[in-house]
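Q: What residues go here?
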């Protein structure tokens, strides 16, 4: 607001055509401090006023050219000067003139001659009025300006408000949510377009109505309850509800927020509702949830696979993870039962798993149960997804059960082991379309993980089997599947340790089949193997659990009997009982590939209980006992005897030394003369001697049998024949010995050698020897061992002139029939009969019989072991042709034999000279 300026120099225009008056008045005013302009006539006054409007004009009326009234009229007519207050200063004083002046807009009238003070007072007054007027005008202008502004603002706010309302309306209408407003009684006050769709009515038709006018009472009650809940809680209440739209039948899940609406006094005036369709969000959430579940199941599956070593456990835990973590209703694993062409469930978990017992899933496409999703998955070797189990044409046979279990979708994934489909992993979900792309990927990954585990199991199984096979080969005899020597040692050690603690005895039984070698040689190894397998089975049937039977090799078995009595006599009796049972079982006839075989066994038994006894010692002991049993005759058992052990140890040492004997020229031939009835030396039997470096001369009785058992008899036998032939050749070249014959002992293994005949022939040819001077002594047992082979070989040799003598005749089971078939030249009466001549009548009779038999067959008879003249005389009396024995000579080294021969011939020729009278 402007302040009123009273002391300022007001600008006054004085107009008077009289210069003196003009001056007087101007001076007067100037003297009062006013700014004064002056004008001498009307026109100049108007021009000056318009150019610079004064605050007050003092105007003379009576002026030439243009009077004061006209000037005033013109000034009032001009906008720049119309407001300038005009005081007429005139000599005119009539009222009419004053009225005319006021009519023209003048503010005062001062009559000339004026009073100075009056004039100044009037001037001051009008100037104040001018000031006041100006001030007032300023105030008015100021207020007007404010009013204008307010108006403008009001206008703007009005426009904003109108705009906002429109936006709000648009917003409410455009928003996809359903919005409505109800009064406290549930009567609709407003709703948006989306809500109109729900009830299928326009807002105008909804307003004034309640939910009961549009939906079922039950649903309307539900809405009402939620309205009340929000109202009474006095806060926003949320709930989820399924709503069906009247306009297009759409049904969805809505999240509804209900807010109470209050007036400024806090009184409830209604409930505002907003409902948002969350169906898709829920579906997406459920999908994510499902994927997360499956992912969790997959992770768990990986953990299970990493830790599980058992297939059945793996399957069960995988199914369990699929249900408990993967959110599946049920899961199971089935394996292909190729024989029955169906799927056999092996693991399951979840609701409806019991159905599997009744479920039939065939792999045969022609079967009514052969086209299930699982059957197809296996046949096509790829997953089959059944997204709507209850409406899928291929699930018909299982639908009823599936409905009960709540299966809405199923997945069947083939399982592979080492790349080959061997089964399937089947899952059921409680929602249709549960297996979207992501779920499929996860399940395929899960099935591939199971495949990986199956491959690992197969590898582990193969390795286990290989290890078991390695163990079997290491510890078991591949032919009979019995523990081998290695395992036997372990078991023996264990048995001795256990029984030493308890004080019980352990028995070890060494079993050897009699004549097994003969079966093997005559019938072949296949039959021999069959016998061993059968024997192994029979042995096992004779034993208790905890006892062991092992095969050492060949036809040798060892049985360990545990926990025998503490008392040695009783324990021995227990072992003997089992031993006899074994012998009896082993001697039952065998059917070997259609061939019936009879065989027996021999057994050596040892009893042990001291922990310090080693397994080697045990085996040695029972080996000794076995040897004893064999010597006592076949099919018998013998307990271990320490004295026998000593003998065997010597034998073992001999066996060792025997190996070098030939190489080191430790053998020599001794010659024991054979004479005729008149005492003439016709030849000799060569008898081998072993000049042992430590033991001295070793008798053949001590080593021939050993050599036969170890096979060393073959080179030794060859050496004897070659040495004998070489000697015959030497003699042939010395006239006095030229007619001597040599008898050579041939052992069975030597004779049965394939090249035996060839060897003799070759040796005879080599020495260009007369074969008739070589006599081969064969024993009865040798001949009967393989009669066909013997006859053939004897005949072949006979054809070239070799002669044969049947050694030890009378001791064996001589078969006269074969005797007649064999090309024998001589029967050698065993010395056991000869030496009993004159002692037992029987032997004398036997000797007579043998001699008579030989005579009848036309073959020679030779008595060996003739020690006395009495024996000789008896033999001579009964017609024995030849003699051999200590009576004539012991076996002698070559030089001594030759000396004796020369001496005897000399005596004989002297005697013949005497008798013929030459001397
Ligand atoms: N008590 C007694 N004994 C007499 C008498 N006359 C001879 N003997 C012995 O009786 C054995 C006869 O030989 P053998 O029956 O063929 O029995 C032989 C023969 O079966 C075997 N043998 C010896 N040398 C050889 C050989 O070079 N090859 C083979 N395969 N066996 C041989 O060894 C056996 C034993 O030979 P030796 O110890 O030399 O024992 C010889 C001989 O010394 C006697 O009047 N009284």
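A:
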């Amino acid at each position: 607001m402007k302040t009123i300026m009273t002391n300022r120099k007001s600008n006054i225009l004085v107009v008077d055509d009289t210069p003196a008056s003009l001056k007087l008045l101007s001076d007067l005013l100037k003297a009062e401090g006013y700014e004064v302009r002056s004008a001498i006539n009307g026109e100049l006054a108007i021009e000056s006023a318009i150019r610079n409007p004064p605050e007050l004009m003092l105007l003379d009326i009576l002026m030439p050219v243009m009077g004061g009234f006209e000037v005033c009229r013109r000034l009032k007519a001009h906008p720049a000067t119309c407001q300038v207050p005009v005081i007429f200063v005139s000599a005119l004083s009539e009222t009419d003139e004053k009225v005319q002046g006021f009519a023209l807009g003048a503010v005062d009238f001062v009559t000339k001659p004026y009073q100075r003070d009056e004039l100044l007072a009037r001037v001051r007054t009008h100037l104040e009025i001018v000031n006041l007027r100006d001030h007032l005008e300023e105030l008015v202008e100021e207020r007007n300006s404010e009013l204008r502004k307010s108006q403008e603002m009001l206008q703007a706010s009005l426009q904003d408000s109108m705009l906002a309302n429109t936006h709000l309306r648009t917003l409410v209408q455009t928003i996809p949510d359903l919005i409505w407003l109800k009064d406290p009684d549930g009567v609709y006050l407003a709703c948006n377009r989306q809500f109109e769709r729900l009830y299928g009515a326009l807002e105008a038709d909804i307003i004034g109505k309640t939910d009961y006018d549009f939906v079922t009472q039950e649903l309307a009650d539900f809405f009402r309850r939620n309205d009340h809940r929000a109202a009474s809680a006095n806060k926003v209440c949320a709930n989820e509800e399924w709503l069906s739209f009247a306009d297009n039948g759409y049904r969805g899940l809505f999240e509804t927020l209900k807010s109470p609406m209050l007036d400024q006094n806090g009184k409830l005036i209604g409930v505002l509702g907003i409902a948002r369709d969350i169906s898709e969000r829920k579906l997406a959430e459920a999908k994510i949830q499902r994927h997360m579940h499956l992912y969790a199941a997959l992770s768990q599956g990986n953990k299970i696979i990493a830790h599980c070593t058992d297939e059945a456990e793996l399957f069960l835990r995988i199914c369990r993870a699929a249900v408990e973590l993967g959110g599946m209703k049920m899961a199971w694993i089935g394996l292909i039962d190729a024989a029955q062409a169906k799927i056999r469930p092996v693991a399951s978990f979840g609701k409806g798993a019991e159905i599997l017992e009744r479920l039939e899933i065939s792999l045969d496409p022609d079967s009514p149960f052969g086209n299930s999703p699982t059957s197809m998955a296996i046949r096509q070797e790829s997953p089959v997804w059944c997204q709507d189990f209850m409406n899928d044409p291929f699930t018909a046979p299982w639908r009823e059960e599936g409905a009960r279990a709540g299966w809405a979708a199923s997945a069947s994934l083939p399982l592979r082991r080492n790349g080959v489909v061997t089964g399937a992993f089947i899952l059921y979900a409680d929602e249709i379309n549960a297996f979207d792309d992501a779920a499929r990927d996860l399940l395929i990954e899960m099935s591939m993980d199971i495949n990986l585990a199956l491959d690992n199991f197969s590898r582990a199984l193969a390795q286990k089997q290989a290890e078991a096979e390695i163990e079997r080969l290491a510890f078991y005899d591949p032919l009979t599947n019995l523990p081998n020597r290695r395992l036997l040692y372990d078991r023996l050690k264990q048995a001795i340790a256990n029984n030493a603690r308890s004080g019980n005895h352990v028995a070890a039984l060494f079993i050897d089949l009699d004549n097994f070698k003969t079966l093997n040689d005559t019938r072949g190894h296949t039959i021999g193997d069959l016998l061993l397998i059968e024997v192994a089975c029979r042995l096992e049937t004779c034993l208790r659990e905890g006892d062991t039977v092992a095969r050492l090799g060949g036809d040798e078995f060892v049985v360990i009997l545990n926990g025998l009595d503490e008392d040695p006599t009783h324990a021995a009796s227990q072992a003997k009982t089992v031993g006899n049972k074994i012998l009896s079982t082993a001697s039952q006839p065998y059917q070997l590939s259609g061939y019936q075989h009879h065989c027996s066994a021999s057994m050596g038994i040892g009893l042990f209980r001291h922990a310090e006894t080693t397994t080697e010692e045990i085996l040695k002991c029972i080996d000794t006992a076995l040897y004893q049993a064999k010597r006592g005759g076949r099919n018998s058992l013998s307990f271990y005897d320490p004295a026998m052990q000593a003998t065997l140890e010597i034998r073992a040492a001999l066996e060792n030394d025997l190996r070098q004997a030939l190489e080191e020229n430790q053998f020599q031939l001794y010659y024991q003369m054979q004479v005729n009835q008149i005492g003439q030396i016709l030849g000799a039997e060569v008898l081998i001697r072993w000049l042992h470096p430590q033991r001295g001369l070793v008798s053949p009785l001590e080593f021939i049998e050993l050599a036969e058992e170890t096979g060393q008899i073959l080179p030794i036998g060859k050496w004897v024949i070659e040495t004998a032939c070489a000697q015959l050749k030497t003699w042939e070249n010395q006239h006095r010995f030229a007619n001597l014959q040599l008898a050579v002992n041939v052992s069975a293994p030597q004779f049965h050698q394939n090249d035996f005949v060839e060897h003799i022939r070759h040796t005879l040819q080599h020495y260009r020897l007369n074969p008739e001077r070589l006599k081969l002594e064969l024993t009865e047992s040798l001949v009967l061992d393989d009669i066909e082979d013997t006859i053939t070989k004897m005949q072949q040799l006979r054809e070239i002139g070799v002669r044969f003598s049947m050694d030890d005749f009378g001791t064996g089971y001589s078969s006269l029939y074969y005797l007649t078939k064999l090309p024998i030249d001589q029967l050698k009466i065993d010395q056991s009969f000869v030496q009993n001549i004159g002692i037992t009548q029987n032997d004398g009779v036997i000797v007579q019989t043998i001699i008579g038999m030989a005579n009848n067959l036309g073959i020679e008879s030779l008595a060996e072991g003739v020690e006395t003249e009495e024996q000789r005389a008896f033999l001579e009396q009964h017609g024995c042709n030849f003699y051999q024995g200590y009576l004539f000579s012991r076996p002698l080294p070559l030089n001594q034999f030759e000396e004796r021969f020369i001496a005897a011939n000399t005596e004989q020729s002297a005697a013949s000279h005497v008798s013929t009278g030459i001397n």
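A: Context that may help when evaluating the design: Residues 658-824+889-911 form a domain with the TIM Barrel fold (CATH 3.20.20.450). Confidence is low (pLDDT under 50) at residues 1-6, 915-919.
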